[in-house]
Write a structure and sequence with these properties.
OB fold (Dihydrolipoamide Acetyltransferase, E2P), seven-stranded mixed beta sheet, 3 domains, alpha+beta, single chain, 24% helix, 28% strand, 505 residues, Chloramphenicol Acetyltransferase, tricarboxylic acid cycle, 2-oxoacid_dehydrogenase, PSBD
Length: 505
């Protein structure tokens, strides 16, 4: 028996829609009410459920086609290989697994890479063809523009094929490898179970499942369901709700400028060429290069300098560091003082904590502090959210935790997005003076440097003091010289007399 899947009623005055996404393909088993496809109108997104259980037949309206109300979308062969109800699922494959053509085999797919990341490079395979693998054992590592992503085995078995060898660039839906000898739970008939169970798992504790397109969008954006307000029936989260949450949490970056054309490399003598080593730039290094150049091309960047006497901060730290570590379980460093001082100064000079969006200035009434961190593979900037409302201990813990995750390559895309201001500490490498480059679309970045004893004139006397040069790079399109200098002076005053932070002066 063949059942037709038709376009449902789209709403008042809406007569046509566009087929946006098919969640099933011909030959797939489907369960009753399982989402088959998604239609987009000029007002809302409409999901089309399966009217009966069976096997997906012909797809009449492909993705991108415009269809009218009651138009034929697809057919279902009812009762043939019907999928079990989602509630009966006992096990499901991991998100990066998809059923392979043969029973007992599992495709290893590229996992979710994060918001706006569409491709990755296979950097390392930890297993070879023929190796036995355990479930959740690491198979390979992918390198994206920002982070390294480990790919675990979705099931136990034998690695029978590597589809994407090291160095291959793969998109977000690519197949990486095949594991054979996997359990029956990963057979093709279980695919609808996984598809139907995934939304239910993501919405545990809710009476209604979120839209599959919303689940996909949340995964790509690194958002959890409690960060999105659902406007659908009974609080159901729709695709549009995720888009609004992403737009609120992360301001759009400026459009990238065209990449400059590199000058051709001059001829190299044969004996010199034999002693050279050519290594392909990592995706992270390519992204760093592009973003920094985009920043120079877009912003009217200027840097102002000052110096700070670190005597009082060092004395306070020396006096309380043991008690601080004993109580809070984390060392008291300089970064919490600088973070607090910057948050204090940003309240007085809000344009340094703002950004330009077209012809608008967007002022942020919060501080998401980016803390630049060097890693073996390049520079990353994890973000400490709402740093202005955090204590010294909370700041130190957050910086330590994110710094470790950065060095281990474990940072997610969400942890590196949404920053409103950045601190870069070149002093840990011995830098005495530098001009940091803005992290777009932010309008300010503070550069810290090496603490060095220098002779200073204090009350008519020459004394030796631990001094540090500070550099504030800012976007002159939005921040005037007066505001930049005022910000840097307020940071200097707060560090030279930390009691000002306590008194909010």
């Amino acid at each position: 028996m063949t059942i037709e899947v038709r376009v449902p009623t789209l709403g008042e005055s809406v007569t046509e829609a566009t087929v946006a996404t098919w969640f099933k393909k011909p030959g797939d088993a489907v369960a009753v009410d399982e989402m088959l496809c998604e239609l987009e109108t000029d007002k809302v997104t409409v999901e089309v459920p399966a009217p009966a259980a069976g096997v997906m037949g012909e797809i009449v309206a492909a993705e991108g086609e415009t269809v009218g109300v009651d138009a034929l979308l697809a057919t279902i062969a009812a009762g043939e290989g019907a999928a079990p109800a989602p509630a009966a699922a006992a096990a499901e494959p991991a998100p990066n697994a998809a059923p392979a053509a043969g029973a007992g085999s599992v495709d290893v797919m590229v996992p979710t890479l994060g918001e706006s990341v569409t491709e990755a490079t296979v950097s390392t395979w930890f297993k070879q063809v023929g190796d036995a693998v355990a479930q959740d054992e690491m198979l390979c590592e992918l390198e994206t523009d920002k982070v390294s992503v480990e790919v675990p085995a979705p099931a136990a078995g034998v690695l029978s094929e590597i589809v994407a060898p090291e160095g291959t660039t793969v998109d977000a839906t690519a197949k990486l490898a095949v594991i054979s000898g996997a359990g029956a739970a990963t057979a093709p008939a279980a695919a609808p179970v996984a598809a139907a169970a995934a939304p239910a798992a993501a919405t545990a504790g809710k009476d209604v499942a979120n839209a599959p397109s919303a689940e996909k969008a949340m995964a790509e954006a690194g958002l959890s369901a409690d960060q999105v307000t659902g406007t659908g029936r009974d609080g159901r989260i729709m695709k549009e709700d995720v888009a609004k949450a992403v737009a609120t949490a992360t301001a759009p970056a400026p459009a990238p400028a065209p990449a400059p054309t590199a000058a051709p490399r001059a001829p190299v003598p044969a004996d010199d060429a034999a002693r050279e080593e050519r290594v392909k730039m990592t995706r992270l290094r390519q992204t760093i290069a592009k973003r920094l150049k985009d920043s120079q091309n877009t912003a009217a960047m200027l840097t102002t300098y000052n110096e700070v006497d670190m005597t009082e901060v060092m004395a306070l730290r020396s006096q309380y560091k043991d008690q601080f570590e004993k109580k809070h379980g984390v060392r008291l460093g300089f970064m919490s003082f600088f973070t607090k001082a910057c948050c204090h100064a940003l309240k007085e000079v809000p344009e340094v904590n703002a950004e330009i969006d077209g012809t608008d200035i967007v002022y942020k009434n919060f501080v998401h502090m980016g803390v630049a961190a060097g890693t073996p593979t390049g520079l990353v900037v994890p973000v400490i959210r709402d740093a202005d409302s955090m204590s010294f201990a909370a700041i130190e813990k957050a910086i330590a935790e994110k710094g470790k995750r950065a060095r281990d390559g474990k940072l997610s895309m969400a942890e590196m997005q949404g920053g409103t201001f950045t601190i870069s500490n070149g002093g840990v490498y011995g830098s005495l003076m530098s001009s940091p480059i803005l992290n777009p679309p932010q309008s300010g970045i503070l550069g810290m440097h090496k603490i060095q004893d220098r002779p200073m004139a204090i009350n008519g006397q020459v004394v030796i003091r631990p001094m540090m040069y500070l550099a504030l790079s800012y976007d002159h399109r939005i921040v005037d010289g007066k505001g930049a200098v005022t910000f840097l002076v307020r940071v200097k005053e707060a560090l030279e007399d930390p009691r000002r932070l306590l008194m909010d002066l």
